Amino acid sequence: MPQIFVTQQDGQTLTLDVAAGARLMEALRDGGTTVEGTCGGACSCGSCHVYVDAQWLSKLDAAADDESEMIEAIGDVVEVRPSSRLACQIHMSDALDGLSLTIAEAI
Ligand code: FES
């Protein structure tokens, strides 16, 4: 099963097994991280905001307009970076085995 490497805001690191096809947000939410996934993955809360390590960005599908708009909106209250993504919009695949990310500060 593919694995991801997660760094939390407090510096704690976790390795999570994530089934191919699963939403990354659900794996983070259920895996003991601070991700809440408040909107259930509807791309409307920003609570699954993560910073994807640079070497993985090009392996992800580009953000859709609604994801980009949500990231822009949360930029009023949290730091948004070029590597910002919403984990609910990322679906795990074998090609993402080893994905590394940092969870952004909570909204
Ligand atoms: S879970 Fe709400 S935007 Fe991702």
From TrEMBL:
Keywords: 2Fe-2S, Iron, Iron-sulfur, Metal-binding
Cofactor dependency: [2Fe-2S] cluster
PROSITE patterns in alphabetical order: 2FE2S_FER_2
Keyword Iron-sulfur: yes
UniProt KW Iron keyword: yes
Gene3D superfamilies attached to this UniProt entry: 3.10.20.30
2Fe-2S ferredoxin-type domain location: 2-107
InterPro entries from the UniProt entry: 2Fe-2S_ferredoxin-like_sf, 2Fe-2S_ferredoxin-type, Adrenodoxin-like, Beta-grasp_dom_sf
Family: Belongs to the adrenodoxin/putidaredoxin family.
Stated name of the protein: 2Fe-2S iron-sulfur cluster-binding protein
